[in-house]
Each structure stands twice: as structure tokens, then as C-alpha cells.
Amino acid sequence: MPSTDKFQLVLFEGDFALPAIEPESIKSILYCKIAEAPVTVRLFNSYRNCALYKTPPLLLHDKVTCTDSEQIVAYLKCNNFNIDRELDPKQRSECLALKNLVQSKLKPAVEFNYWIEHRNSTEFLNIWFMKCLPIPLNYFYTGNFRNRAVDLMESLYPNETDKDVIKEYIQRAAIDCLQSLSSRLGNGEFFYGSKPTTLDVAVYSYVAPFIKIPFPLNEMYNVVNMWPNLVNLVKRIDNLYFPNVPKGSKYIRLEDKAKTTDDEVSYAAIVILTLSATSLILGFAYKNGYLTGKIPD
Q1: What's the pLDDT band for 59 if we cut at 50, 70, 90?
Q2: In angstroms, rounded to a whole number, what is the distance separating the alpha carbons of residues 290 and 50?
Q3: 119 part of a folded domain
Q4: How far apart are CA 89 and CA 188, in angstroms?
Q5: Same structural domain for residues 95 and 13?
Q6: Is residue 74 in a domain?
Q7: Is residue 250 part of a domain?
Q8: Rounded to 5 degrees, what are φ and ψ at 19?
Q9: Where are the transmembrane segments (predicted)?
């Protein structure tokens, strides 16, 4: 029998009709929804939760802490929350191979779109995280994500420094992957019949952000829409598992995405500049005796 103990799932907050802003958190919450695992969701958006927990997604249960989506899925399967249990051995092998394809071809496209594409990073996601996470953690995590994306690109293309060339390679690989997935899905409801599996979870987690997040530059939106059956898969999962997720944007007005970096002012930067100026003024006042009442001659 499945465990009746509550699991705690720590996630980055969702927005733009997504249950979470980044794919690993999306994978985790979607798997829990499909498996009907008893989870309490804690959003990683306050000083308290940021102090208590490491980088999401995290699953906490008894004395166990799972620190990424793969560990989370494996642990839930061990607790009898296995959405692949009805697959036969041949289907499981194919499912694993296709998930590896998704991970190797679509993940780089997502990372590039999120953090390497300059306008998307500086004009959009940076602003989103600045408003979602408390200072200074917002700076820490955005820098961390960008460094992680750069490391991934360098590991995939160690001899290539031209960002446009890397982008072309990544998009070509993503197109080949999406074509294979679309052919495998065909007219089916899900990849393996009438119930979603971990392959459906992986595809949704990487495809949905391309469709839903209104990036300033998002060529992958048009690429994904070349395969309507994959778009319909995303809609089907939304209707079944995330019907109450808000459709609008919580932190960024959609009309703001057209502004350039020069036109936008970071509230965090204003705070930092204000504190710096205040410190200088207080230091000057103390040095010259205005705070102690001793005015120098």
C-alpha cells in the first residue's frame, strides 16, 4: 500500500500558467499530481523557506531529503507511487530511451533560452526572480543559474565560442527531438495509452515553458507549434492536473517585456544605491562630528 505520510515538496513558484517557473520543479509537482502522492507544497519565495531549504526542487519525507527531480521520482516509486507500473519491459526500455533523448536535446534548448539568450535573461528572468526571491538570494540564484547554463554549453560545445553557432546547433537538435516525439505520440492521448507516464512528464516540463513564458526572444515557440499534437499534449495535461493554475502573470506585466534594459530600473538596485548613499552620508556626518555633537574646528 502507498505510504500515507505527507511528503513536503519545495518548489520555485509558478507563473505564466505554469505550476513552477523552471523544468525541474515542474517535473516534480507534475509527477506528484499524476501519482496522487500526498504532498504539502512549500514555495521557495520567502526568507524563511530560503533559509530552511536548499535549491528546489526538494522532497522531504521522514528523515529523507531528495535534492533533484530524478531522486524525487525514484523515491516516490519506492513508496509505491509509480506511474510507470503498467508499462511492459519493452515499453519501459523505450520510455527510458526517449526520456534520455528529451534530457539531452531539450534541456540545453531550455537552458539557452532561459539564461544564455541575453534579452531573455537580463530583461525578463532576472526581473522575475528579483521580484520573486528576497534580496540577496535573488542575485545569488540568478547568477548560479546563469553559470550552470554556461557550464552546460561549454561541456556540450567546448571548441565553439560563437553564441549564434551554439544556438543553431541546439535548435537543430531540439527540432530533431521534437520530430521524434511527435511521431511517437501520433494521435495518442499520451505516449503510452490513456494514462501519462514519466515520458509525458519530461516532455511537458521542457515543452510547456516554450509555449507559455512570454520571453522577449523565443524562437522555440514557433518551433514547438510546428507539432500540434505536442501542443495538445501540454493542454491536455493542464486541463487534467493544473486546471486552477492562474493564467496571468504575477510578477511581470506582459507589456513590460517589450522594454529594453536601459528603460527598466531594478528596485533592488535602487535600494542598494540608497543604502550606499545613506552609509556615505552617515560616515561623513560621524567623521565630522555631526552625530556626536563635536564639531571640528
Answers
A1: very high
A2: 40
A3: yes
A4: 20
A5: no
A6: yes
A7: no
A8: -70, -20
A9: 265-286
Q: What is the CATH number of the domain that holds 61?
A: 3.40.30
Q: Do 111 and 232 reside in the same domain of the chain?
A: yes
- Tell me how many domains the chain contains: 3
Last residue of a domain, one of 27, 57, 78: 78
Q: Give residue-wise pLDDT tens across range 17-54.
A: 999 999 999 999 999 999 999 999 999 888 777 767 78
Task: Decide: pTM greater than 0.70.
Answer: yes
- Asked if pLDDT for residue 278 goes beyond 60, the answer is no
On whether both 149 and 54 belong to a single domain, the answer is no
What is residue 254's predicted lDDT score, i.e. its pLDDT? 64
Whether residue 229 is found in the same domain as residue 113: yes
91 to 97, 192, 193, 229, 233: CA distances (angstroms): 10, 8, 11, 20, 19
pLDDT greater than 70 at residue 280: no
Query: Secondary structure of the chain in the HEC alphabet?
Result: CCCCCCEEEEECCCCCCCCCCCHHHHHHHHHHHHHCCCEEEEECCCHHHHHHCCCCCEEEECCEEECCHHHHHHHHHHCCCCCCCCCCHHHHHHHHHHHHHHHHHHHHHHHHHHHHCHHHHHHHHHHHHHHHCCCCHHHHHHHHHHHHHHHHHHHHCCCCCCHHHHHHHHHHHHHHHHHHHHHHHCCCCECCECCCCHHHHHHHHHHHHHHHCCCCCCHHHHHHCCCHHHHHHHHHHHHHHCCCCCCCCCCCCHHHHHCCHHHCCCHHHHHHHHHHHHHHHHHHHHHCCCCCCCCCC
Enclosing domain of residue 37? 7-78
The verdict on residue 247 lying in a domain is: no
